[in-house]
Known about the structure:
By secondary structure, the chain is mostly helical. The chain contains 18 helices and two strands.
Amino acid sequence: xxxxxxxxxxxxxxxxxxxxxxxxxLTVILTGGHSQGEEQxxxxxxxxxxxxxxxxxxxxxxLLALRxxxxxxxxxxxxxxxxxxxxxxxxxxxSFEPSVTLRRSxxxxxxTAFGLxxxxxxxxxxxxxxxxxxxxxxxxxxxxYGLLLPSYGIxxxxxxxxxxxIYTHKNGLGREMVSAFIIFLLLLRxxxxxxxxxxxxxxxxxxxLLSNSKTALVIFPTMLLVVTACYMLRxxxxxxxxxxxxxxxxSGGLLLILVLNSxxxxxxxxxxLTLTGRTDIWMQTINNIGERPFLGYGYQGFWRGxxxxxxxxxxxxxxLVNHAHNGFLELCLxxxxxxxxxxxxxxxxxxxxxxxxxxxxRRAEQIWPVVFIAFMVLSNLTETSLVEYNSIHWVxxxxxxxxxxxxxxxxxxxxxxxxxxxxxxxxxxxxxxPTP
Length: 436
């Protein structure tokens, strides 16, 4: 078969796999369109989802094996990430639900392999283009679900009227539409498909508003500030000092206003001082962390229903809480302070390397890692998607973690028979990488 055709098939498969890992579009159908506040169906069969994810694990593992030289080269550039993944797997030894932890650990290894594949197969520029097509499909399908399949695409029950698109909850749609808008915005600087990207911007922003996700509406303007700050990093030093000082003073003033008028401002967005009960869950989660502070309860080993260690929290809250509503607390709960420290060490290294690459050039693909890491932090302050198996966010974090860890002036891939490198001039520097 022609190599170009194989490459195209691989490209399309990667896009469709990312759509699947984003959490849609099959899950909401398999739940029967269940919404929060409604009685859920007694039996739900998710075996088709399990089979699809298992198939992707095998395919990406096989692709990595076929390019084993390239895989080993990239793999060695971020050993701390694999130490963390290994710690997740080992946590089955002390988990309160060892069988669950073992199964989910296999899933996190498969999800990590997907991220490794993306970083070893595609440059950052190509990764951003792939995400443009991915979120274009997600945005289109979410409109289709909302307009043509409203029983699935629009929530009923507690959040009646809020759009959720191809996801099971409005917050999922809101979160992904923030990502979609930022990706389309970064891609606007590329000349091709300009009007399609503008349409994507309008469609994703409209869905963000229709989702009525308060968290996403707060994160959205913050992410726009992050993108603006990234472009300013290349300005003259004196101007940067003025800009950063102005942002700091403005942020401090807004924070003071928020603190002094928190009750009134939160009421405007339909929240209370407990952030819809989140602060109560946080305090109870911290108490549980104190009982097993160093190693935690094992990956995915805590929130296992009424007959598990989380039963006390469930009894106090009166509903089936299934996560800590904070990604960092959730990680500490599952893997203890040791797991949290290992993750944060790797996270900070990726962040520093992303900033270092950003200072080279203002190209969109260099801005994307910084923007995504900031998005990860913000979105995990009130939700839990930090280290989640079968999640597009973990896939992208792994892909970025490996990509920014490659040498700055030698983005180098290996052909398994011989090195095939070509050069691309970027600004005053020459980056070396092979033809995909």
